[in-house]
Amino acid sequence: MRAFDLDSFPAERPTWLGFLEEIAPAAFWAPLFSPEGYWDTRTRLQEVDKAMKAALGFGLDRLHREATAFFKHTYTHVLFYHGTRILDEQNYRTHGLLRSSIENLNDTTRRMFGDSEALLRASSSLRASRYADHNHGRVGVWYSRRTLLVNGSYCFQGSEYLHLLSREMGPEFHERMTSAGRGAVVCCRLPLGEAEEFCASLAELAVKHLFRIVDPEAPEAMYLEDHAPMLERDIPPEWIEIEFLPD
Predict the structure, then answer these.
(1) Mean pLDDT for the stretch of residues 90-98
(2) SS (H, E, C) the chain
(3) pTM for the full model?
């Protein structure tokens, strides 16, 4: 079993250099890895595309296609990350990570706060704005744990829907909602056959990381991958690992 984890790409770099050398000799690629004349990643990839077309007769489009095929041949699993506040750990251990259900989320709120006019008004308001349909039936994940923790509030404030629902209900409810449960990262290890639609995107990110040069003086946010795909399936308990975070 070999899982692709975007945050661990530096350890995968030798494997991907071998992939490049099946396309052209190492001497062709070496100048494109040079930090001399620092560019942002987009500009650097434009230079890679230009150099490939001049020397090889094809550019990044073909490289990405071949990288996708290489990705599928090399890895058996992919890692995604979901942030949440867990109220019932045993439910995750038994049922895994379930797709968002507005009905279940409203039931959770009723268990926490009871049936009230405030809850009815808040849920009606979100339904009228059609926000209730936003993530219903899907699981939001991130390609990068680092990005989830830096940019995502889900580990600390909980479900996006519950977060907005409690805000609609008022400050007291919002404070109680965001302190309920335990902040957690749920790592999802999906077999490649269950995540095939994401292989092309992950392979392109791998190519991007190959040519990316990190400026040590640049803020970390410049190098975070903020891709957040949606999975339209439940993730069974044997495919997840729960990492609780300190509050």
Answers:
(1) 95
(2) CCEECHHHHHHHHHHHHHHHHCCCCHHHHHHHHCCCCCCCHHHHHHHHHHHHHHHHCCCHHHHHHHHHHHHHHHCCEEEEEEEEEECCHHHHHHHCECCCCHHHHHHHHHHHHCCCHHHHHHHHHHHHCCHHHCCCCCEECECCHHHHHHHCCHHHHCCHHHHHHHHHHCHHHHHHHHHCCEEEEEEEEEEHHHCHHHHHHHHHHHHHHHHCCCCCCCCHHHHCCCCCCEECCCECHHHEEEEECCC
(3) 0.90
